[in-house]
Amino acid sequence: MVTYLPISSPFIRFAGRYVDDAFGVAAGYNFFIFEAAMVPFEITACNIIITYWSDAVPVAAIIVIILILFVLLNVFAVQWYGEAEFWLALGKVFLSVGLMFFTFVVMLGGNPIGDRFGFRYWNNPGSFQEHYKTGDLGRWLGFLACLIQASFTIAGPDYVSMAAGETINPRRELPRAYNGVFYRLTTFFVLGTLCIGILVPYDDPTLKNAYEADLPGAAASPYVVAMDRLKVSVLPHIVNAMVLGAAFSAGNSYVYCASRSLYGLALDGKAPRIFTKCTKSGVPINCVGVVLVIALLAFLQVSNSASVVLQWFVNLVTASQLINFSVVSFTYTRFRKACMAQGISRESLPYRSRGQPYVAYIAAVCTGVMAFVGGYEVFLPGNWDIPTFFFSYTMIGVFPILYFGWKIIHRTEVRKPEDVDLVTGLAEVEEYTRNYVHVPSKNPFGRFLDFVFG
To answer: Which GO terms describe its molecular function (predicted)?
Structure first.
C-alpha cells in the first residue's frame, strides 16, 4: 500500500481512506496511546537498570530527572533529535553484534574462570520452563508466556512507513528498507534470544531478584548477569550503561513520535485544535505536554514494585500494538478489494508481497486473537488483579468505543471497494518517480550505513 501511495503516517490514514473514517480515528488514537504508554515504560526500565549500581537515589527523583531531560530534548533541543537518534541507533547495532560475539567466545571457555559451558543450560534446568502447570501443559503455557512477551517486541517494520511521505524515491527505497528491517530485526531477535538462552538459565536467581524483588545490585540484563557470574570485570558496567542509554533513547523517541502522532490527528481535525499550537521552532508544545503528563504514570513505581509496573505497561503496549498490526492487515485486504473493483491489476503495483491476501487474513486473525490472549493469566485461579486486567484489556475496549463513537457522531460509512479513493496524490508520486535520478553514495562509510540500515 505504502509503495503505491507513499504518504506520512500511512497505516493510520489508509485505515480512514480505504475502510472508514471512524476506523482511521480509532487506529490513530490507538497508535498514539501505544507510543505514549511506551514513555513511562522506558522510564520504569531505566530505573530497574540503574538499581544495578545502587538504590540510593529515590525512585521519584530518577523519574523527575528523566522527565526534565525529555522536556529539554523535545522542547529546546529538538533540532538535534535526528542526529542524536542516528548515532544512538548505530550504537545499538554495535552493542547487539558485540554481545553476540561475547556469547560465542565465553561459551567456548574464553572467560576468566575458564568455564566451557556451551549449551549447558539447555539441559539443566532445560530449555522449556513449566508455567502454572506441570508436564506438557506447563511447558505449553511457558511457551505461550514467551509468545505473549515476544508480541511486545514486534514493533519495527511498521515504523519504516511512518516517514514514507518524506522518503527520497519511496517506491525504490521503501521495499529495500522493509526487507532490510524485517530480516535484520529477525536476525537480531533470534540470535539475541539464542544468546540469552545460552548465557543464563531461566531460573537464574539474580534475574529473579531484579524482576521480582527489585533488589539493588541485581542485574536486569541477562548479559550482565552472565558477565558477573563469569567474573568479567568492567564490561558489565559498560554494557549496563549502554542498555541504559538505549532505554533512555527509546523513551525520548517515543515522546517525539507520540507528540507528532497527536499533532497529526489534530491537523486532520480528529483531535482538538489546541494541539496544533507550535513553538517558533515547530515543536507541537501542547502535544508534548500531553505525552509528558501520560509519562507521569511512571510514578506508579513509587508505591508498587518496578517490575510489576513494568509488566503493566508491557500488557498495555502489547495489546495496543497487536491491534495496530491487525488494523494494518485488515486495511490491506480492503485496499486489495478496492484495486480489484477499480480494475487496478496486482502486477501494476510497485511492490507485491507473497501469499496475499491469505497472509493478511492470517495476520489479522492471529494478532487479534493474541490481543485477547495477552492477559489470560489474570483469569487463572488466585491471579485476579484489577490493575493487571485494566492494563491488559483497556485498549481492546477503547478501540471499539472510539470507532463506534466517531461513527455515530459523524455518521461515517464503511467505504465500498468501488468508492475507495485510490488516485488522490497518485499523479504527483508517479511524476516524481519518473523524474528521479538515483545518485549512489560515494562515501564508503555512507555505503556501509546504507547496507546496515537498508
So the answer is: amino acid transmembrane transporter activity
Residue 443 lies in a domain: no
Tell me, letter by letter, the H, E, C secondary structure of 196-234: HHHHCCCCCHHHHHHHHHCCCCCCCCHHHHHHHHCCCCC
Q: What is the pLDDT of residues 37-58, one digit of tens each?
A: 889 888 988 888 888 787 788 8
**Structure pTM?**
0.83
Distance of CA 277 to the CA centre of its chain: 27
Report the domain count for the chain: 1
SS3 assignment for 310-330: HHHHHHHHHHHHHHHHHHHHH
User: Is 452 domain-assigned?
Assistant: no
**The length of the chain, given as a count of residues:** 454
Residues with Cβ < 8 Å from 272, sequence gap 6 or more?
A: 266
pLDDT tens column, 316-370: 888 888 998 899 999 999 999 999 999 888 888 888 888 888 999 999 999 999 9
Radius of gyration for the alpha carbons in the chain, expressed in angstroms and rounded: 23
304-329 burial, b at 16+ Cβ within 10 Å, e below that, comes to: eebbbbbbbbbbbbbbbbbbbbbbbb
**Highest mean pLDDT, choosing among 79-88, 235-244, 307-316, 432-441:** 235-244
Query: Which residue, 287, 244, 253, 243, is CA-closest to 267?
Result: 287
Is the CB of residue 246 less than 8 Å from the CB of residue 92?
yes
Which residues span the domain enclosing 9? 2-435
Distance CA(39)–CA(248), nearest Å, equals 9
DSSP three-state, residue 307: helix
Contact 407, 20 (CB under 8 A): yes
What is the spatial distance between Cα 242 and Cα 223, in angstroms, rounded to a whole number?
12
Position 453 in a domain: no
CA–CA dist 148, 313 (Å, integer)? 13
Question: C-alpha grid cell for residue 395?
Answer: 485498549
Cell numbers at residue 344, please?
487496478
**Residue 5 φ/ψ, nearest 5 degrees:** -140, 85
Closest by CA to 368, choosing from 330, 421, 413, 311, is 330
Q: Tell me, what DSSP letter sits at residue 3?
A: T
Q: What CATH number does residue 263 fall under? A: 1.20.1740.10
Distances from the Cα of 54 to the Cαs of 48, 50, 219, 311, in angstroms? 10, 7, 11, 22
| pLDDT at residue 217 in the model | 53
Domain assignment present for residue 448? The answer is: no
- Grid cell digits, residue 114: 575458564
